[in-house]
C-alpha cells in the first residue's frame, strides 16, 4: 500500500474525522467540534501540558508552532496547546478566567486555536 | 508680549510637526491672540547661521528677555560628555541649552526626548542622551535635579512621542498669559491637568476591559487591547482619550495599543524582541497590572467580570 504510506498526514487526519463524524473539523458545527475534542481526550490523547510557557518568548514559540496548522489538524492543536478537560494546577486555572475565552459563545478566541471550549477546561496558553 | 525660543537637540522634529498641527489654540493663535513672540523655531525661524547665533547670544546675555525656552529632543552628551555629536551655532547644543535655561523665565521640555531621554536614551544610549531634568525616571538630567528657572519653577515636562499639539499650545498660553502659577505639576513635573488621568480614561473599549474581553488582532473594534496586545492604557498617564488626536480619534479607538509614551520608561523593556505590542506575562498573569491593582485582586476581578459579562460584550458593537 505505497499510496497509503505516502499520504499527507493532514489529509489522513481529515479523512479520519469525516469517516467518524461525517464532517471534517473545518466544516463542523460547534457541537460536533466540541464532541471531537472531548472524544479524543477521553480516549486517552496525551497533550503537552508542560512545560507551561513562563515567559512571552516561550508563549510565542508555542504560537509559532500552532500558526501553520490547518483547521482540520485538530489533534495537533490539542496536543501542542496542552489541552485538558479539567482545570489545572493548585490555583485551578481554567478557561472561565482566561482572557481568550468567550463566556457566552463558549469559544476560545485565540486565533491560532479558534475552537469551542468549556469553562472548566484549560490549556497551557492560558492567560488572565 | 512673551518672547519664546524653541530649540531642538537630539530630535526627529516630531514634536514640532505636532505643534504645527495644534488647533485649540493653533500655533498662529499663539502669536495673534496670546501675544507670544516666536524669536526663533527650527521650522518657523527665518534666520540662518550667524543671525540665529546672534539671537541666542542676546537671549543668554539678557539683551533679549527670554520668557519661555522650549526644548525638543534630548540633550546629547556624546562623545565622552562633550556634546560634540550635536553642535549648533558653533558649539555643542548642550551648552546652549544650559545657558538659555538659566536665562529663561520658564523652561518647557516638549516630548519624551526632552523630558526623559526617550528613544535615544534607550540602552545602550550611544548618544549619551538625557532629558532636561530627568534621565528616564531618575532626577537630574542635563540641568540637574535642583534646577529652577528664573520664575522659580522646575522644567515643565510635556511628554509624549509626540506630545499632543494642544497640550503644548495650552501650556504655552498659560505661561505666556501669566497663569503659570495655576499650573500644578506632578512628581515628574508634568501638568496635572493633563497627566493625572489615564490613557484608559475615556477609552471606548472600557466596557471590554471591564468584562475581560480581549482584542486578538490590531484594528479589531471589539475587545480590550490590554490583555494580549500590550496596551499600556491602564497604567499610562495621559489624556489621549479625553483630548482626542486630530479631534477625532486616539490609538486605542483605532485598534492600536497605547505604548505608554508619556511615561519615563518608554520605550518599555528597552525594545527587546517580543516586548512591543505583546502583553508581558509571568505564568499567564500580566507583569504590569492596572495602576493600584495587585495580582490577587486582579485574578478575583477577572473571575467576577467574566462571570458577569453580558453576551453583547463578545460582539462588535461599533457596527457601520
Automatic annotation (TrEMBL), chain A:
It comes from the Bacteria. This is Uncharacterized protein. It comes from Tistlia consotensis USBA 355.
Automatic annotation (TrEMBL), chain B:
Its cofactor is [4Fe-4S] cluster; [3Fe-4S] cluster. Its EC number is 1.12.99.6. Its main location: other. This is hydrogenase (acceptor). Keywords: 3Fe-4S, 4Fe-4S, Cell membrane, Iron, Iron-sulfur, Membrane, Metal-binding, Oxidoreductase, Signal. Heterodimer of a large and a small subunit. It comes from Tistlia consotensis USBA 355. The keyword rRNA processing does not apply. One of its GO terms (molecular function) is 3 iron, 4 sulfur cluster binding. Residues 197-267 form the Cytochrome-c3 hydrogenase C-terminal domain. One of its GO terms (cellular component) is ferredoxin hydrogenase complex. It is found in: Cell envelope.
Amino acid at each position: 500500500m505505497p499510496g497509503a504510506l505516502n499520504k499527507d498526514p493532514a489529509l489522513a487526519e481529515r479523512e479520519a474525522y469525516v469517516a467518524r463524524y461525517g464532517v471534517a473539523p473545518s466544516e463542523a458545527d460547534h457541537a460536533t467540534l466540541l464532541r471531537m475534542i472531548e472524544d479524543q481526550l477521553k480516549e486517552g490523547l496525551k497533550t503537552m501540558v508542560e512545560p507551561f510557557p513562563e515567559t512571552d518568548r516561550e508563549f510565542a514559540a508555542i504560537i509559532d508552532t500552532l500558526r501553520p496548522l490547518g483547521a482540520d489538524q485538530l489533534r495537533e492543536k490539542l496536543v501542542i496547546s496542552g489541552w485538558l478537560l479539567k482545570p489545572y494546577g493548585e490555583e485551578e486555572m481554567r478557561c472561565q478566567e482566561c482572557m481568550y475565552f468567550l463566556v457566552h459563545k463558549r469559544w476560545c478566541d485565540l486565533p491560532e486555536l479558534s475552537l469551542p471550549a468549556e469553562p472548566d477546561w484549560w490549556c497551557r496558553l492560558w492567560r488572565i | 508680549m512673551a518672547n519664546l525660543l524653541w530649540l531642538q537637540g537630539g530630535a526627529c522634529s516630531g514634536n514640532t510637526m505636532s505643534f504645527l498641527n495644534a488647533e485649540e489654540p493653533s500655533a498662529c493663535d499663539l502669536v495673534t491672540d496670546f501675544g507670544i513672540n516666536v524669536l526663533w523655531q527650527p521650522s518657523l525661524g527665518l534666520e540662518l547661521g550667524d543671525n540665529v547665533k546672534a539671537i541666542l547670544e542676546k537671549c543668554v546675555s539678557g539683551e533679549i528677555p527670554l520668557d519661555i525656552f522650549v526644548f525638543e529632543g534630548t540633550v546629547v552628551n556624546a562623545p565622552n560628555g562633550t556634546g560634540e555629536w550635536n553642535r549648533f551655532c558653533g558649539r555643542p547644543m548642550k551648552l546652549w541649552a544650559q545657558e538659555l535655561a538659566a536665562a529663561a523665565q520658564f523652561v518647557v521640555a516638549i516630548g519624551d526626548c526632552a523630558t526623559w531621554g526617550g528613544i535615544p536614551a534607550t540602552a545602550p544610549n550611544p548618544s549619551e542622551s538625557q532629558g532636561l531634568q530627568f534621565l528616564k525616571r531618575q532626577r537630574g538630567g542635563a540641568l540637574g535635579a535642583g534646577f529652577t528657572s528664573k520664575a522659580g519653577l522646575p522644567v515643565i515636562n510635556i511628554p509624549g512621542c509626540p506630545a499632543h499639539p494642544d497640550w503644548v499650545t495650552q501650556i504655552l498660553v498659560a505661561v505666556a498669559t501669566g497663569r503659570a502659577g495655576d499650573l500644578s505639576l506632578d512628581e515628574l513635573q508634568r501638568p496635572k491637568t493633563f497627566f493625572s488621568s489615564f490613557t484608559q480614561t475615556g477609552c471606548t473599549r472600557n466596557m471590554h476591559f471591564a468584562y475581560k474581553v480581549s482584542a486578538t488582532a490590531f484594528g479589531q473594534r471589539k475587545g480590550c487591547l490590554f490583555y494580549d496586545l500590550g496596551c499600556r492604557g491602564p497604567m499610562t498617564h495621559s489624556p489621549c482619550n479625553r483630548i482626542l488626536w486630530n479631534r477625532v480619534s486616539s490609538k486605542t479607538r483605532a485598534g492600536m495599543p497605547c505604548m505608554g509614551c508619556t511615561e519615563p520608561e518608554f520605550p518599555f523593556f528597552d525594545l527587546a524582541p517580543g516586548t512591543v505590542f505583546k502583553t508581558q506575562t509571568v505564568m499567564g498573569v500580566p507583569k504590569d497590572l492596572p495602576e493600584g491593582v495587585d495580582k490577587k485582586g486582579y485574578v478575583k476581578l477577572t473571575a467576577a467580570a467574566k462571570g458577569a459579562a453580558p453576551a453583547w460584550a463578545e460582539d462588535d458593537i461599533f457596527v457601520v
